[in-house]
Amino acid sequence: MAEKKATTKKAPSKKEDTKKVAPVKQEVKKAAAPAAKPKAAPAAAPAAAAAGSTTQQGEARIGVFICHCGTNIAGSMDIPAVEEYAKILPNVAYVDNYKYMCSMPGQAVISKAVKDNHLTGVVVSACSPRLHEPTFRTATKEAGLNPFRFEMANIREQNSWVHMHDREGSTDKAKDAIRIAVAKASLLQDLFPKTVPVEKAAMVVGAGVAGMQAALDLAAAGIKTYLVEADTSIGGRMSQLDKTFPTLDCSQCILTPKMVDVGRASMIELMTWSEVHEVEGYIGNFDVTVRKKARGVITPKEAEARGIVGGGCNGCGDCETACPVVKPNEFEVGMKPRKAIYINHPQVVPLLYTIDFNSCVKCGICVTACGPEKRAIDLESKDEFVKVKVGTVILATGYDIFPIEKKEEWGYKRFENVITSLEFERLICASGPTGGHLIRPSDGETPKRVAFVLCAGSRDNTGTGKPYCSRFCCMYSLKHAHQIIEKIPGCIPYIFYMDIRSFGKMYEEFYYRIQDEGAKFIRGRVANIIEDKKTKNLHVMTDDTLLDRPIDMEVDMVVLAAAVQPKEDTNRTRKLFGVSCSSDGWLLEAHPKLNPCGTTTAGVFLAGVCQGPKDIPDTVASAEGAASAASIPIHMGEVELEPYFATCIEEKCAGCGMCVNLCPYSALALVEKNGRTVMEVTEAKCKGCGTCGGFCPGGAIWMNHFTTPQIVAQIDAFLLGGEQ
Amino acid sequence: MSENGINHKFAFYLGCIAPNRYPGVESASIKAMKKLGVELVPLKGASCCPAPGAFGSIDLAVFYAMAARNLVLAEQMKMDIALVCNGCYKSIWEVNHKLKHNKDLRDAVNEVLKEVDMEYKGTINVYHTAELLYNDKFIGVDKIRDSVTNPLTGARIAVHYGCHLVKPHKDREFEKEVMLNTECPTWMEELVAAIGATPVEYRNKMMCCGAGGGVRGYDIVHALDITNEKLINLMEEKVDALTDICPFCQLQFDRGQIEIQEKFGKTYNLPVLHFAELLGLAQGMSPQELGLDLHGISCEPLLQKVL
Ligand SMILES: Cc1cc2nc3c(=O)[nH]c(=O)nc-3n(C[C@H](O)[C@H](O)[C@H](O)COP(=O)(O)OP(=O)(O)OC[C@H]3O[C@@H](n4cnc5c(N)ncnc54)[C@H](O)[C@@H]3O)c2cc1C
Ligand code: SF4
Ligand code: SF4
Q1: For A589-600, what is each residue's pLDDT tens digit?
Q2: Closest Cβ–Cβ partner in A414, A463, A533 for B184
């Protein structure tokens, strides 16, 4: 049925529509006429076009190479029919097919054909250009042609895979695709990529374990690295953790050496309490303006620069003792107070106090406490803007905890004894607000029954939570279970779970260990938590899906393994660098499997959780990957830019400047030339998106590789056929 | 303000249980809302909503078509629907919403409606009267407070929200954001406070009444067991009455207490009133006018406290 439909629809449309299409043809031709000029008069077009003056239609000799892709393509269409059809297309001088065009023998077929038949252009009809355009471009180059004399017709992703059961239809569609590609290939020109030098410096944004590791690696590779951290100290979430699964080593103990290394490394310029303000430029040459937020406290170095010998903050903390303003300490998830002048915790790097100017009353008591020798406090300090030039950038902005109070049924922020896992980490940590004693917030009692609610807000399709798995909560909840069994004799952890995802090295073993230690596992999503008003105990209501019975379990405390989400400021920061995000907000990698650290913006890379939830081992691995990827262009010394930029045909440009405002990459400007105002393109900034070219009312913008004549020829070929 | 102080008119969809078991809900709604500037015009010829559990789980096509027919009657009156029952809300609001957004379903339903020369067009909205009372676009808490002549001072009143009005969360689109709180809503308590009574929180407030989803019809003992648990939680707080916004929940709590006494031998004697009835009392309507004598459990103890 479906087969018939596709073909019967097609047949009449071809014949009948010729009449209807006729007027369109004229219009198209008209539109094409003026734009066709620069092609004939290449002087107006860029130098690259000048070299391509052999693109006159009559002289073009195109080779068409049809790939079977095993049975991926050949299984769904009539390859011999497609081949016969390709032979009758204008300018086609050679047609061949092969089982796997991308294989070495396949590429050899192209090479030989180009030489033997003096081809001027190559069309490979195969998969998506996203996959193999680079492969065939290289093959074209090796055959002796300019690599941009290559065009790809996608007959797999957009054809055989979607029309698997419509043989006739997909055969016809492949013919269309090839006809269009040949039309373009006949007009292709030689293009020559530009190279630009790469600044021998990098920037890492975010100094959690990911950013720190990336910066250390870059520095070790001899690259000057600016490490920009929004908080007052480096370390990120890992510095808030007590122990780390599955080895249970103390988080601070393994992290502080790294923090100290970062503080010491001469190749790392640490900028804490700072954020990226503005970004200009492109791979190799990013001009980044960093806003150093007013800190109110100066370093010994800064003191020296101000002529205060032996001054600056030495971390003594006298100011903190004196300050009268008390605020909740965010590092302790609000469970401990801090002053308006504060450090997060004793091991901070850099050991430098910060004034929270939103709370400071400017009483000046700290200035006195600090004393006339150090003179480290400057209550009038202002934001500073520092401009640096870097070749590549790594984003490592990490995560936040999902506001789990939105899942109202679990009562977080309504019931005192419902806490999050991050709060648990601080409560169980010896340096935390309770000195490592897990207590009930309601009465300070030690709990004997603790429920852990897994997937709290993760794997949630209700629209309130997050659809993805947060990936480390199963494992850290097992760790938490172990910690309470170890620390509180007789205390039983009850773990309410959907599945336990213990996928990493030694993780499954850790899971068994916790089972053996006596943790209780109940498979069921927690429907509801109810507080007993008198005792402040909690009733955890669920369905035990293994025993098939409803559960109402009374516990002393509930720990919600809350989902994670991208850090608050991520969206603003990513936009500055032109990086996309997926629908869930995590930063988007260039390819989920084959390029997980890269982004679609050349020169910008991703490390750690900002790309998606990862535990520490995966975070560090991704950071090292990103550092390696970010160092490649720097070590190469120069990078090649795709030659797809726009050019201005100055005689036609009226200097209206509309395109300048439209360009999303600020690549265009108006300049004076020979007494006229014309537009000028900064080629390195232009991404070839074509926004300006499509708009220019005078047709004065020439988009390399997507020229108006090429596009019109493609449309003509599609609408009018053009078989010989 | 337009004629006679009436600002809004709605097609009043009564449903089945209110007119048959608690006629007071009907008269209280009409009279009390009128004082608040809202006229409820009877939706003539309406059928059962139909009950979401009973019909929805057996034949969806019938379910959609019947609900659509009720909607078309209101479309013909060119009025939005107002109704007093959570079950009706689930059926009629949800079907309206689905038909507005799903063309295939709309076409299928219209195919059926053709047989009775009707066509669903999607021109009206559906509201629960509780929503009209709470949303100041229509009435609002302040206006209710101003309309009270006989404040129910001293009465400790707990609220049963019922399930179908507020759940499922992802399918609800109330204009007032607090009404989207499914797990611990408190907007009804604001209404209770507005008529002078003391709203009382109790354990597991959002638990089902026990009747919904066909449970009452299918397994009465199970249904009553749930109701019983709610009653125990309510009695712990020494409440004088329970108020609801759904005649079906009301039936379960009111008649259910008699059944609980028969089956489990437990007596609570907790008066159960639809919020419309309470509002009527606070606006000075007499217990007879409100048909309170038709309740299974006597409202006398409450009345003695507030009258
Ligand atoms: C309760 C809990 C327990 C855990 N336990 C374990 C465990 O036992 N083992 C384990 O392997 N993993 C554990 N994890 C996971 C672990 O925390 C993460 O894998 C790790 O912290 C990720 O590091 P990161 O550098 O990618 O992100 P983060 O630690 O979030 O660091 C990001 C850094 O970037 C900064 N930043 C953010 N945005 C900007 C910006 N726009 N500009 C400048 N700076 C910015 C932040 O201030 C922060 O310092 C746990 C997580 C939680 C929540
Ligand atoms: S000036 Fe600000 S930081 Fe210093 S002591 Fe006073 S309140 Fe604290
Ligand atoms: S890691 Fe475990 S608890 Fe966390 S979301 Fe995934 S499955 Fe749920």
Answers
A1: 998 999 999 998
A2: A414
